[in-house]
Design goal:
The protein has 306 residues and is of the alpha/beta class. It has two domains: 4-58 and 244-305, Rossmann fold; 88-217, HAD superfamily/HAD-like (Rossmann fold), CATH 3.40.50.1000. The protein has helices at 9-18, 40-49, 65-75, 87-98, 113-121, 164-174, 200-211, 223-232, 247-256; strands at residues 4-5, 21-24, 31-32, 35-36, 53-58, 84-86, 106-110, 125-128, 151-156, 180-183, 189-192, 195-198, 216-217, 240-244, 260-264, 294-296. The strands form four sheets. The protein has a seven-stranded parallel sheet with strand order 1-16-15-14-2-5-6, sandwiched between helices. It has a five-stranded parallel sheet with strand order 8-7-9-10-13, with helices on both faces. Helix 4 (87-98) packs parallel to helix 5 (113-121) and helix 6 crosses helix 7 (200-211). The two termini are 31 Å apart. Bound molecules: 4-phospho-D-erythronate (DEZ) and magnesium ion.
Length: 306
């Protein structure tokens, strides 16, 4: 299958008329770090003017929804908390509503405030995470460590302050097969302002290696993320389009959910030109098996609809 490359005003008008719900990935589509993609704000305004439902679906677990709302506000992007779906939120809902974690049980977190705040919002107890005791580069000694018997889940997300102590503690829990191993998402890289950085998948990889266990990943492309959205929003999959910069998360998520898919090529570093997705990934002999329905350079291209 060859993706339809969009370029004319008519192309974008056809999309506007065809889809009522627009699900947007964030990193690499709306922004890279705190730098907005040109035209993103204008296009979201156009969609809202045409009474389209706009949802934000991000695998980035470093922030909880209220913190994302602050980022949207700071960048001048209209967004409402109930339109924002992050993998930290999806993981917390999965633990509370699907696993139904008993109140006397806890989660050992490898991750940042986003995960902690979403767990707390779901009334789930946790340890680890940003606990100052774990923010150390001192060597880890088992003699000074006591397992907390209440821990029955290890949840790992992007942690830009990862260290050996956190990995060693999480690994102590993962050696118990009755402890569930979850990751918020498995993205290999993260498109920041200055370039590509190791993603959440690169943070959980040492735990997979050490434990020999394969975690359940909650974020895109998993359906757990779409289930979270369906619990809050009605939408017709046939009139819904997922816009993303990564094939094995965003586009596969859309395909798994029976949605249409639009790939943009803005998940990149201006400095190094390193990209999340290259044209060669969707066209030609080395194309991926995950091919989007549509492709355009940037979400800003839809500005012509103004
Ligand atoms: O490593 C990560 O967590 C991801 O690169 C990042 O979070 C992706 O976010 P998204 O593109 O889904 O907004
Ligand atoms: Mg992205």
């Amino acid at each position: 299958m060859t993706p339809t490359r969009l370029s004319t005003k008519e192309d974008y008008k056809t999309l506007l008329d065809k889809y009522d719900t627009w699900m947007f990935d964030c990193d690499g589509v709306l922004w890279n770090g705190d730098r907005l993609v040109d035209g993103a704000v204008k296009v979201l305004e156009i969609l809202r003017t045409h009474k389209k439902s706009v949802l934000f679906v991000t695998n980035n677990a470093t922030k909880a929804r209220p913190s994302y709302k602050k980022k949207f506000d700071k960048l001048g992007v209209e967004a409402h908390v109930d339109e924002i779906f992050g993998s930290a939120y999806a993981a917390a809902v999965y633990i509370s509503s699907v696993m139904k974690l008993p109140k006397d049980k806890k989660v050992y977190v490898v991750g940042m405030e986003g995960v902690e705040q979403e767990l707390a919002a779901e009334g789930i107890s946790y340890i680890g995470g940003t606990d100052p005791a774990d923010q150390t580069l001192n060597s880890f000694s088992l003699s000074s460590f006591t397992r907390d018997p209440a821990v029955s889940v290890v949840l790992c997300g992007l942690d830009t302050a990862i260290n050996y102590t956190k990995l060693a503690k999480a690994f102590q829990y993962l050696q118990d097969p009755s402890v569930t191993f979850l990751v918020t998402n498995d993205d290999s890289t993260y498109p920041s302002e200055g370039g590509l950085l190791p993603g959440a998948g690169a943070v959980s990889a040492p735990l997979k290696t050490a434990s020999g266990r394969e975690p359940l990943s909650i974020g895109k492309p998993a359906s757990t993320m779409l289930d979270c959205i369906k619990a809050k929003h009605d939408f017709d999959p046939k009139r819904t389009i997922m816009v993303g910069d990564r094939l094995n998360t965003d586009i596969l998520f859309g395909q798994n959910g029976g949605l249409s898919t639009l790939l943009v090529l803005t998940g990149e570093s201006i400095q190094t030109r390193a990209r999340i997705t290259h044209v060669e990934d969707i066209e030609g002999p080395n194309a991926s098996s995950i091919i989007p329905e549509y492709v355009t350079n940037s979400i800003g291209d839809l500005r012509v609809l103004a």
